[in-house]
Amino acid sequence: MHEPLGLFIHHIFPQFTMDWSLVEPHLETRSLKKGDFLIHEGDPCNLVGLTLHGCLRMFFLKDGKELTLFFCPEGYPLGDYQNLRLQRPAIFSCQAIEDSDVLILNRQVLTVLESASEGPQLMRQVVEFLAFRLRDRLLSLYRDTPEQRYLALMEAEPHLLQRVPQHYIASYLGLEPESLSRLKRRLYQGQLSKQSKP
C-alpha cells in the first residue's frame, strides 16, 4: 500500500530511504463516491491524503461561492497540511468529482516518516513543495488572464479538461460558466482562422 506514497516522496526527495514496514500498518485507503467529501472546511484537520484513483478538488467558500483552488488527480497530494500540523480546523474542503480512492496520511503516518533518519529534511521538502505549488497558483490568479490560465491548464494537464465538469473548470479559472463558454468559443474560432490562412 505504501508504493504510491513512496513514488510521491521520491519525486520531491529522491534520496529519502526508510523501512516502509514501519509505515504500512498506519496506512489506510478511503473510497469516495462522486460528490462525497473527504474533508469539510471548518472540520478538525486530522489527515491529508494522496489520490490513488479518480480526481478530487480542493475549494473554499467566499461570500457563499465555491472557489476551486486545486484539482487532485492520481498521484496528487490533497488536504490542509499546515493546519494538520498546527491542529487547527481545515480551511479547504476536499470533494470527489469522480469515484475516487485516497491514501490517508494521518498524524501517525507523519510521525513515523519524521522519525526516519532523513525525516526532518523530508518534511521540509514537503512543505516547500506545497508552498511553491500554492505560490504558483496565487501568482497565476493575480498575474494571468483567465485565457492564459486556461491555456496553461490545457498544456500542463489536458486530461483534466475532459474529466472535470465545466463549472468546476470555470471556478478554477475565476470565471462564471458562461464566460468560460465564450472563452472556449473565442479560442476555437481563433484556431480556425489560423488554419484557414494560406
TrEMBL record:
SUPFAM superfamilies from the UniProt entry: cAMP-binding domain-like
Top-level lineage group: Bacteria
Domain Cyclic nucleotide-binding positions: 27-113
Name of the protein in its database record: cAMP-binding protein
